[in-house]
Design a protein that fits this description.
Serine Threonine Protein Phosphatase 5, Tetratricopeptide repeat, 0% strand, mainly alpha, 10 helices
Length: 211
């Protein structure tokens, strides 16, 4: 998914990226069935899982992984350094701000990601890709209502944006138990985006939500 241009992070070496990927795999911190609105930072963003779980259902596992999460935070801080250096001379640059947000999102530092995404959207409010990532970060923080509000705002700018509809359906389904609303969003996604790369997954979720 390459909806937005990304800022180069020259200091992020392959070795460091691979190291962080290994930590992500050990921690089991894949993004579930969610998809990104924008291109990620080079960190792993999704791994196959059997089901989608609401954030509250992962609390015990998350607590047990705190040393790994601390390590992920440290590595994300290192990756963000070149972008933060650039922000000192260009503090309102929406691409730079979104780039930092992506780094922290991919390291599961969602509160930090929300801050940077919000700042990016002040300068570029119509960026549906960044707003989709902001909404998904809110979901991971346990705020389904705020997530839905941001997804809906993103759709005012790009009404048929596939990844937004995909994630909105998941939050309605898992966060609000609104199966019919979720199915409507996913059917809208497929109708507007017949070649969507995750269409088989969408069909699986429609079947599960209509049982």
């Amino acid at each position: 998914m390459t909806d937005t241009s990304r800022i180069s992070t020259e200091r992020w070496t392959n070795a460091r990226a691979n190291s962080l990927a290994a930590f992500c795999l050990l921690a089991g911190i894949a993004g579930g069935w969610f998809v990104r609105g924008s291109q990620g930072s080079g960190l792993p963003r999704s791994l196959p899982v059997a089901s989608v779980q609401a954030p509250s259902q992962r609390g015990v596992a998350a607590a047990s992984q705190s040393p790994v999460r601390a390590r992920l935070r440290a590595m994300a801080d290192a990756q963000a350094t070149p972008l933060l250096d650039k922000l000192r001379s260009d503090p309102t640059n929406p691409e730079l701000l979104a780039g930092v947000g992506n780094i922290y999102y991919d390291a599961q530092q969602y509160r930090i990601a929300v801050d940077y995404y919000g700042r990016a959207l002040k300068g570029k409010p119509g960026d549906a890709a960044v707003r989709t990532d902001l909404a998904t970060a809110y979901w991971y923080l346990g705020n389904a209502d705020e997530a839905i509000a941001e997804f809906n705002t993103a759709l005012t700018y790009e009404p048929n944006k596939a990844n937004t509809l995909f994630n909105l359906g998941i939050v309605k389904w898992q966060g609000k138990k609104d199966n019919s609303g979720a199915v409507a969003d996913w059917k809208r996604l497929l109708a507007a985006n017949p070649n969507y790369e995750e269409k088989d997954k969408v069909k699986e979720m429609i079947a599960a939500a209509t049982k």
